[in-house]
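Hey,
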Amino acid sequence: MTSPPTRRWSSEDAALAAVSSAPGALATPRALLTDALLSATESVRRLVELTVEEMDRMVTRARSLRGPSRTAPRPAEPAVDAG
């Protein structure tokens, strides 16, 4: 995620953007945070990093518990001998 083209991130906007991007709440794909964005969070950088790390763990865990995607093709079932 990059800063708005006309101005630098404020520390508040940078923190909100970083935390919002972790669960995919923004209209952008989930991506690793850039150092520039983290640097813009200034005094709350460590808190933002910890929050984003925890949210990433939660997203990963939720995906693993959910199982295969509903849009993914199901594996073929073995043939059953009716005889």
